């Protein structure tokens, strides 16, 4: 009998009639295979949706297999152990530990100023690697001028400045002694940042849904073949 022409409902009826004890095995296999298909598809979706520093996020996607012989109580779980995946899936507002929530600018990742940052922050531009001066002076312009002058005198490239639009930022000094320009590395002007929803799991389930019926049908046919029922 050709598998591609086997009707799923008929296959179930045949298995119930001739080998009913095999039903739980077929159900359990179908659930577990579906779960692992979701896991593989979700990992692929994550690779395409996020900028990943390592494979931790992918490896956090785990499966808990269905067990036992009671079909009504069988459950297979697919989920992530990464604490931030819920925020990524549904969106969130993340507050800084202090007054500010540091936001990396494109320049910190080696990308053009004003563009959208799509890469990871370079090691030398991480906050922990930067050394900046506190601002001094009466006015905003004076404080910025003093901070730049002190940084140049000490041979430092990075400086904490007050931004024209309000708030503060860590800037990289560019150019020589005669002409100095600045490029924003870290925006320190916000107390929180909104995480836009990135429903990777939702998109995964939408793609997997049409394949579930075939996965279950194949699990039933596997049991029919195993017990050599009706020429399967």
Describe this structure in words.
This protein has helices spanning 8-19, 23-49, 56-59, 85-90, 140-154, 200-226; strands spanning 61-64, 77-80, 92-95, 103-104, 158-162, 168-175, 180-187, 192-195. By secondary structure, the chain is an alpha+beta fold. It has two domains: 3-91 and 196-226, no CATH class; 94-194, no CATH class. The protein has a four-stranded antiparallel β-sheet with strand order 4-7-6-5, covered by helices on one side. A two-stranded antiparallel sheet has the order 1-2. Helix 1 (8-19) crosses helix 6 (200-226) and helix 2 (23-49) runs antiparallel to helix 6.
Low-confidence stretches: none
Strand content: 15-25%
Structural class: alpha+beta
Q: What's the domain count?
A: 2
Number of distinct helices: 6
Q: Strand order of the main beta sheet, please? A: 4-7-6-5
Describe the oligomeric state of these chains in a short phrase. single chain
> H/E series, N to C?
HHHEEHEEHEEEEH
The end-to-end distance, rounded to whole angstroms, is: 6 Å
Which sheet architecture does the biggest sheet show?
4 strands, antiparallel
Overall pLDDT metric: 83
Task: Give the radius of gyration.
Answer: 29 Å
3D shape: rod-shaped
Helix content: 25-40%
Structure summary, number of beta strands: 8
